[in-house]
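Example S7 (structure tokens).
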């Protein structure tokens, strides 16, 4: 989604005044100055071809990593060619959202198939058309949990920091009390988790931000014993081999679907998903595509349960979500269909086995021992003997994007895209750097 700044000075001034800002630059205050481009410094009088060459030379200064060992919320996976072939069709690329649902049968079927695939992954009863991203899906789950006398949410300290910040923002706007459950040994501290009769829900991430597998079933039982809802934010690819949210007792499952056929793409656009039990179906934000039959008995698709949306219920709506990431959802659907259950299990198993091979090799290097003892999927955290930035710089010289530096160590990620030779080369450089 782009930002709109009026060209008309009076309109622009009124907009800025309404927002409590003095200049348009203040709209982008969150963007670090060092990455802002104020001027391209192109000489005058250049032709279009000459300008294009200049821009390409500038772009060539960007570092392109051939080998990646970083995740932390965005993951590189193999994307079958058929995924791009399908999503590049103009009837899908040009369709924004099915406002005239009855004549948008192709888009509606694509959404329906996406919902069906998400339900099969999570083993929950119903999924919505999609959310903007994983963080907003997590935040929307808060509203689904709230009840008249239950206005407190508990979220684990082991979730993605960006998810935590988004949930905190939503809670602030809704007047919801948010408590952060502490971590112990890299996972949620079960003993410190104390929901009461004011707790609406508990949210955890599985696997969590440090790559570790949480005891989700135990946390779910604790939530339900207190009468609260249980929400899990999940990596969808991991569900091919891990227990489903339903098996762990989750009432709601959310997550970022970027691992399902969406490239890294410099940070987006991405795709949030959300599924829940039938009991919570009418609290789902956004829209649901349903299957029916037309007057001739043929299979047909409709938009259903839109009464929750803000363009119908206005200020009484539980959510302001009235659109969806249809094209990204189509890519995820094509990816899941292309791989199938067996293919997704193979991809997830490769991630798991290669990550454990890498973790064993890296942790043998002095100073790079594993930080946490628990089971993990395809991410793990090690220590770092010295300056993590220096380690990353040494890897960059070899065309490798290393793990994500965190306080106390480095968070590594290994997927099916990483070969044994790449892992061995990474370990060799780390030994030389340590």
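Recovered sequence:
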């Amino acid at each position: 989604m782009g930002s709109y700044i009026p060209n008309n000075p009076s309109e622009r001034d009124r907009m800025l005044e309404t927002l409590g800002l003095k200049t348009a630059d203040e709209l982008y205050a969150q963007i670090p100055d060092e990455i802002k481009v104020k001027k391209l410094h192109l000489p005058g009088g250049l032709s279009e071809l000459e300008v294009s060459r200049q821009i390409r030379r500038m772009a060539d200064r960007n570092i392109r990593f051939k080998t990646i060992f970083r995740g932390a919320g965005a993951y590189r996976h193999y994307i079958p060619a058929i995924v791009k072939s399908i999503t590049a069709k103009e009837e899908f690329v040009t369709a924004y959202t099915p406002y005239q649902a009855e004549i948008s049968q192709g888009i509606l079927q694509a959404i329906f198939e996406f919902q069906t695939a998400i339900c099969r992954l999570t083993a929950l009863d119903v999924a919505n058309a999609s959310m903007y991203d994983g963080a907003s899906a997590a935040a929307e789950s808060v509203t689904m949990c709230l009840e008249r006398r239950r206005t407190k949410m508990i979220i684990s300290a082991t979730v993605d920091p960006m998810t935590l910040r988004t949930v905190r923002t939503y809670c602030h706007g809704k007047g919801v009390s948010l408590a952060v459950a502490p971590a112990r040994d890299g996972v949620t501290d079960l003993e410190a988790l104390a929901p009461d009769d004011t707790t609406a829900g508990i949210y955890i991430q599985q696997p969590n931000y440090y790559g570790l597998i949480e005891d989700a079933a135990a946390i779910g039982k604790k939530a339900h014993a207190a009468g609260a809802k249980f929400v899990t934010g999940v990596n969808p690819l991991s569900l091919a081999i891990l227990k489903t949210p339903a098996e762990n007792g989750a009432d709601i499952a959310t997550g970022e679907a970027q691992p399902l056929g969406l490239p890294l793409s410099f940070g987006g656009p991405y795709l949030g998903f959300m599924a829940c039990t039938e009991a919570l179906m009418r609290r789902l934000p956004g829209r649901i595509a349903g299957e029916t039959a037309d007057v001739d008995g043929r299979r047909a698709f409709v938009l259903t349960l839109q009464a929750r949306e803000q363009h119908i219920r206005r200020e009484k709506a539980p959510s302001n979500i009235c659109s969806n990431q249809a094209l990204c959802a189509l890519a995820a659907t094509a990816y899941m269909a292309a791989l199938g259950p067996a293919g997704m299990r193979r991809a997830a198993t490769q991630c798991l086995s290669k990550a454990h091979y890498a973790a064993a090799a890296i942790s043998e290097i002095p100073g790079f021992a594993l930080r946490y003892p628990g089971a993990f999927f395809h991410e793990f955290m090690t220590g770092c003997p010295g300056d993590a930035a220096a380690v990353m710089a040494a890897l960059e010289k070899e065309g490798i994007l290393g793990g994500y530096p965190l306080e106390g160590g480095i968070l590594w990620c290994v997927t099916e895209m990483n070969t044994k030779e790449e892992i061995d080369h990474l370990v060799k450089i780390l030994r030389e750097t340590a």
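Notes on this example. The CA atoms of residues 188 and 288 lie 33 Å apart.
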